[in-house]
# Entry
Amino acid sequence: MAVRPRLTTAKVVDAALELIDEQGVEGLTLAAVAARTGVATPSLYKHVASLAELRGHVGVRVLEEMTDRFTRTVLGLSGDAAVEALMHAYRSYVRESPKRYAAMPMDPLHDELQQAAGVKLIEVMLATLRSYGLEGSDAIHATRRLRVIVHGFASIESGGGFGLPEGLDDTYDQLVRMYLTDLRGQS
Amino acid sequence: MAVRPRLTTAKVVDAALELIDEQGVEGLTLAAVAARTGVATPSLYKHVASLAELRGHVGVRVLEEMTDRFTRTVLGLSGDAAVEALMHAYRSYVRESPKRYAAMPMDPLHDELQQAAGVKLIEVMLATLRSYGLEGSDAIHATRRLRVIVHGFASIESGGGFGLPEGLDDTYDQLVRMYLTDLRGQS
DNA sequence: CGCACAGGCTAATGGTGTTAGCTTTTGAGC
DNA sequence: GCTCAAAAGCTAACACCATTAGCCTGTGCG
# Structure
């Protein structure tokens, strides 16, 4: 037998993400990951402690992917242009990978494994608002409002909750303008 | 009606909701419902076609519960007072029954079983905005923005996504005011 | 050259949804 | 009041899942 390619935790997570993209979060099963990586199911336990832990790793990946993307989007921008770019990048990500977005942990700060990745994502949002000169809790509230809008829209859109997709771009533009106007009145 | 049934579909759904309140959506299992209703697991199929269909019934119940509650909240109010009351009632419901809220279907309009209940819930929101005199697509956009805010906040809060719960009331008040200001500028 | 061990395997257990087919109960009609 | 069809329960069985235990083997390191 030739040298069998060794499996790593990273490759297991890769397979998990492919599976999620194709079949949704519900389709992430150890049996399916094993089949895709060409290994017997119990062998996965050499790289992952449990299905729950694998889900955790997937969550970290998604958070990192979003952080990376939003960071590059916002680099070199400030003020309304930065916020607008961030909000559209958020929606773009979710439209490209709706199933993957559904695998994003809602409470990364309460999980040891995901905490760092969660903090980084929120810091990107905070940094995007830096040029508005918000201090202390004002900055926190502004970040929360931003999260509510982008996640609320993304959650409903990716879940097919908007009935007809007609005019969704307009709705999102209105939300962006609403938030920017609100930010301006705040400072 | 040859036989008086000891168990009915409604009672099965009742047990399912109790289970969800206690253990979350993930805890809803036919075996657990059977144990709670004092019946063998396969017997449930006499009242429910499958676990998926039971989830659908649960979703309808949650939608109806919310519709009923928000309707009573908003009755006799109009304008900003109505919107404000609706938004706070939404958050109250989710804080009282966070696990149950997670069982709310995201796309009720695409499910035959849930469509009617979903339409009614959205109509309550639309009616709440009636006094602003929005026409056609303006009304739709305004309803969508409202949904984005209330669901976005509820989703993050009930998922424990806000880190420390400190100042969450303030954040929500800011969102309410942001939406009301936006509505005013719209008309 | 030898050997520890990482990383694969098979077998087995307990949980799940679901189907098939049998039994019991009970109300409706004669 | 008796009969009987069907509603509503049951057990048995199957497929699929996660997980654990224990074995085997090749590889890299000393």
The first helix of chain B runs from residue 9 to 23. Residues 1-7, 39-40, 42-43, 46-47 of chain B lie near DNA strand D (CB under 10 Å from a C1'). Helices of chain B lie at 9-23, 30-37, 51-74, 79-96, 98-101, 115-128, 136-158, 168-186. Chain B is about 65% helix and 0% strand.
